[in-house]
Amino acid sequence: MSAKPRLTVLGTGYLGATHAICMAVLGYEVLGIDTDAAKIAALSDGRVPFYEPGLPEMLRKALDSGRLRFSTDIAEAGGFGDVHFICVGTPQAADSPAADLRYVDQVVSSLAPHLTRPCLVVGKSTVPVGTAARLTSMLQSSAPAGTAVELAWNPEFLREGFAVEDTMRPDRLVFGVSSPWALSVLESAFAPLLEASVPVVVTDLPTAELVKVAANSFLATKISFINAMAEVCETTGADVQQLAASLSYDPRIGGRFLRPGLGFGGGCLPKDIRAFIHRADELGVGQAVSFLREVDAINQRRRQRTVDLIRAQAGGSLAGVTVCALGAAFKPDSDDIRDAPALDVARLLVAEGAIVRVYDPQAMDNARRAYPDLHYADSVAEAATGAQVVALLTEWDQFRELDPEWLGDYVAVRNIVDGRHALDPTTWRQASWDYRALGRAA
Ligand SMILES: NC(=O)c1ccc[n+]([C@@H]2O[C@H](COP(=O)([O-])OP(=O)(O)OC[C@H]3O[C@@H](n4cnc5c(N)ncnc54)[C@H](O)[C@@H]3O)[C@@H](O)[C@H]2O)c1
Known about the structure:
Rossmann fold, six-stranded parallel beta sheet, binds nicotinamide-adenine-dinucleotide, 19 helices, alpha/beta
């Protein structure tokens, strides 16, 4: 294997496309593989098939360098790669809280027959602890190169919206390895980041698998903690924003992820904590993480509570009420609508008879595809026209910067529920809006 290994990236979704593109920009020869021919055609053509700030420019740079190409043919990966990164999805199973590992299993079983020389397969997908051990046996029993094929785990911590920055300058790298050889290969595969002094934790496979779910469990817990405080504030008349601000001055607590509101969603946190609970139950240590059930429940309750606020503003019933829903993506600077709280709220409103008009700066196509029954508007103004309640559900800058007078000219009634604590209540109230937010007095 050369000093600069050739890399394959298996699965070119949010994680894999970013990883493939950034590694090529960092100087590696990279082959990206996906079973989705449309995705591969778009990437080959210089188009990123999802919204991620800065990534289209990086893709152009990587393609121009001649170091990056894409294919749907996994046989090519075997011949090409010294290091194969597994970046396929691990969604929640349809019928249980467990992770659905079918894509991971498929990619490993389709890659293995093409591994005829020593190489390292590196898992980046988020998986239940113990998966790497199982995949190692799968790989070594079906790869022609046998035990010369090793498996390592390198969990990924990138955040959508900051994916390029997080890949080019990660907070840390975690290398889960079973041999010094695997470690040396990973060091070659991440040499530019190690030279830039990115901290590295070298550990075993189960620890590397656990790091990711532990990190997401902690973050989810922090969000649900402040949202639990919001629930208490709602019945006591206390103000959760001031509570959060006061807590955040304590450096042991810190202010990040301590923002109350509609809670977390997306393709990671919700399914990762559920899969963790499930896996811990399987392992007989369910009690250790049973608090995550409550973390999930608090988070889900925020969605219904947002609907309650909107209903209250509408006068007690949502039947026939026009609601302007600002936001569909699970967070700003992303078009990802997986388990998006905004769309859940929109659907709950519709279920109670509201007429909901959704607008999002980037996630409209995904939302339309997933929920064709909702109404969509092409602009904030169109969504707001004649609305009896405006609900801010994803905190895009475009919504944070809205002028209350400007918006007030479009709506029928100046009612706003700020599901993300993104607006200044004083400014909006001064413009005669009835401003409400979770955990704050009306
Ligand atoms: N999205 C994030 O911000 C993020 C961050 C950290 C970790 N993760 C983890 O990374 C993994 C991938 O997440 P994602 O958001 O990129 O998912 P995604 O759904 O956007 O992408 C997965 C890709 O894998 C492809 N795929 C499925 N089976 C395949 C196969 N057999 N061969 C080749 N390609 C195949 C799919 O077509 C899809 O393009 C998950 O485990 C997730 O939990 C995601």
